[in-house]
Amino acid sequence: MNFKKSISSLKLPHYKSTANKASVKIAPPEEVLLPMNMHSGQAAEPVVAVGDYVRVGQLIAREEGRNSSPVYASVSGTVKAIEPYESESGRSTRAILIKSDGKMELDPGVKPPEVHDLDSFLAAVRASGIVGLGGAAFPLWAKLDAIRRGPIKTVLINGAECEPFITSDDRTMVEHSQLIVKGVELLKTYLHSEEFILGIENNKPGAIAEMQRVFADDPSVVVKPLKSVYPQGAKQVLLYNAAGLVVEEGQRLASLGYIIINVTSLAKMAEYMETGLPLVDRCITIDGSAVKEPGNFVAPIGTRISYLVEQAGGLSCEPGKVIFGGPMMGKTAYSMEQPVVKATNAVVIMNRKDSVSLEPSACIHCGRCVEICPLGLNPTAYAKAMEIEDEAERFALLDKEKVSMCMECGSCSYVCPARRPLAENNRSAKGFARKYKAQLQEKEGGK
């Protein structure tokens, strides 16, 4: 893999117009809708019933199964429904609808957790409901639990925020630097980590300056400005650019003595340890060519997009596309009434002109997709594989071409002159390979 060459070749317009806009805490909406699958694992299980009165920070759904995460009421009010819900990715689950009473009354059980050793620390993080807030939504407790399998010498803190438009992590670093300091101290105390590398793209001078200021007297923390290239915030790219390391296919990052934590996840962890308030709100960037007054808004999780748009002055025109997250890796919303979830760091709303998709044409085999891929993968090979009818042959080719390593960053689609839907095809190929491999393992286990 020509790793170093490929990561420096894609530069995107930043569109960081909200970078200097302080986050604004909005008034509670009339209702919130809280899906049970706001994390990467199995859906949470409701523990409340229709008609129940709930308060902010009250447990309304327990974690269920592997890599699950609890869900807490983000407003006080009455549970109006527990209904079917389909996310923008097509995952079906249930969602709890809470009618707000506008009081934001805090649950009396909210208090700082008692933490005195590794076990109680990990249990507290688990109870917080915090997941990867940069978009991955992997439960934070499960990531930190890697300490049980070996020492975590180095923590790589991800403040890159490389997608266009999004500035919510930037605001975390500028506005809540003391929480980040507290988060580092907690990991020193309970994980016994010795080194912290805070990677920040150099288009965030305010965040870099603030992080350098608060960690000026801590030699264990290195604030590392990084080039503003995409996808700088991806795990493999950040690891290479910030630490000079490469994680191989199938290799766990923890095996190198490293873990990567999103900077806002770290701050929220510290906030929970100080206050006992679980993850019930977050900063969300609202921006895009259809938004009148873009900004950063601290909103209860479960707030509908339409209400957030009102806080941003409404729309200047009819929207052409609404995206959860950034335009490169985000997912398209199917309704303005969808709620923001734990991992929603931005909602980008584009006008119709900026949303037009050009018709794809035949692949001209120019090789640009391979050249731009941070890992030197071959998207055209995945497209060919998905045309193979025999599933065993299809899987063999995908496995040979290391489809599981694809980060789904969208760089290949961005540079393709034929406008081929390469990123979407890569995602489908990964899904097929994952499912087929699981079936093989199940068959082998049944012998």
Radius of gyration: 22 Å
Largest sheet: 6 strands, mixed
Report strand %.
15-25%
Number of H- or I-type helical stretches? 14
How many angstroms separate the termini? 38 Å
Low-pLDDT stretches: 1-6
* Helical fraction: 25-40%
Strand order of the largest sheet: 1-14-13-17-15-16
Shape: globular
What's the total number of strands?
A: 17
| Helix/strand/pairing category | alpha/beta
The averaged pLDDT comes out at 94
Topology:
Blueprint: H1 3-7, E1 24-25, E2 31-35, E3 45-46, E4 53-54, E5 59-62, E6 71-72, E7 77-86, E8 92-100, H2 118-128, H3 140-144, E9 154-158, H4 168-175, H5 177-190, E10 195-201, H6 205-214, E11 221-226, H7 235-243, E12 258-262, H8 263-275, E13 281-287, E14 295-300, H9 305-311, E15 319-324, E16 331-332, E17 346-351, H10 368-372, H11 379-385, H12 391-400, H13 411-415, H14 422-445
Parallel strand pairs: 1-14, 9-10, 9-12, 10-11, 13-17
Antiparallel strand pairs: 2-8, 3-5, 4-7, 5-6, 7-8, 13-14, 15-16, 15-17
Helix pairs in contact: 4-6, 5-8, 11-14, 12-14
